[in-house]
Amino acid sequence: MDSAVPAPAFAISRFLEDIRAVAPASGSAFDVERLPDGRTTLVFRVLDEGRKADVAVSGPRTRAHFKNATGVVRAVLLQFKPGWSAQLLGVAASALTDRIVPLEDLWGRSGSDLSLELLAAPNLPAVMDRLGHALALRTRQTFEPASARLARRAVRLLEAGEVRVENVAAQLGVTARHLRRAFTESIGIGPKDFARAVRLQRAVQRAATSHDWARIAADAGYYDQSHLIAEFRQLLGLTPSAFLKRAGAQRPQRPQRPQRPQRPSSATRDAAAA
């Protein structure tokens, strides 16, 4: 089941793309599905019937991650907009790629203390308040490099439909090599991998309402249906039909985004847990 998620503190709201609070039915496992998307997510979990908690960072992925998580009482997931995680977490996004890292490994004592504070929070608004305070404090302690701003501009172009890294670099007035370096540092994956993830996400969204794979491939930006199938196999480890069959089987357990006024929209389906 889901809980309504209160609006985050204004100081961090501009860095966030999606917020979820999930609570699997008692005794049920939580099916984790993380598709490649170029995003970093902070995950707070309550475990062991409410006696323990942890906070971890799920970095951007180049391949899908599927897992059946047990023992999760509830979780809160904060998904950062691309290009902001380094400022919020204090480490280059590339250091988190395809990894799930305990927050205390990044923040030390303050990371483990935050887990205890969140576990002691009496309700969801209090959890969000303490998360917001901790992240806002980090933004005042870190410096935002120009490469992060460049990477975010490149993200907008790639999500708008540009697929060639050279074209993006030319529009931004930098070399392709410089763009790849800045993008990898700030987003966590290269611009080519990011473009592939954007294309995959479009195909997954369209497949929710259509099974015409030739049309889906064309609309999502693939050369043809064979190109789409090859990308699904490489990025998800599944054929398109096998992915849809899996998604259909898991849909009753997958959390839906809570409806909150003024919440940032997202094109991703991210349910990351350590």
Textual characterization of the structure:
There is one protein chain. The chain contains 12 helices and 8 strands. The chain is flat, with a radius of gyration of 19 Å. β3 and β4 form a beta hairpin. The chain has 2 domains: 10-143, no CATH class; 146-250, Homeodomain-like (Arc Repressor Mutant, subunit A, Orthogonal Bundle), CATH 1.10.10.60. Helices cover 45% and strands 17% of the residues. The protein has 274 residues and is of the alpha+beta class.
Fill in the keyword field for this structure:
274 residues; single chain; 12 helices; 2 domains; 8 strands; Arc Repressor Mutant, subunit A
Give the secondary structure arrangement, pairings included:
Layout: H1 10-13, E1 16-22, E2 30-34, E3 40-47, E4 52-58, E5 65-69, E6 72-80, H2 85-89, E7 100-102, H3 103-107, H4 109-120, H5 124-139, H6 146-159, H7 165-172, H8 176-187, H9 191-207, H10 213-220, H11 225-236, H12 240-250, E8 270-271
Antiparallel strand pairs: 1-6, 2-5, 2-8, 3-4, 3-6, 4-7
Helix pairs in contact: 4-5, 6-8, 6-9, 7-8, 9-10, 9-11
In short, what is this structure?
This protein is an alpha+beta fold and 274 residues long.
Q: What's the number of domains?
A: 2
Principal-axes geometry comes out as: flat
Could you name the ranges where pLDDT drops below 50 across 5 or more consecutive residues?
252-274
Could you estimate the helical fraction of the residues in percent?
40-55%
Average pLDDT confidence is 85
Distance between the termini: 19 Å
- Approximately how much beta-strand content do the residues carry? 15-25%
Strand order of the largest sheet: 1-6-3-4-7
Number of helical regions: 12
Number of strands: 8
Radius of gyration: 19 Å
Question: Main β-sheet, in a few words?
Answer: 5 strands, antiparallel
Topology as H/E string?
A: HEEEEEEHEHHHHHHHHHHE
Give me the secondary-structure category. alpha+beta
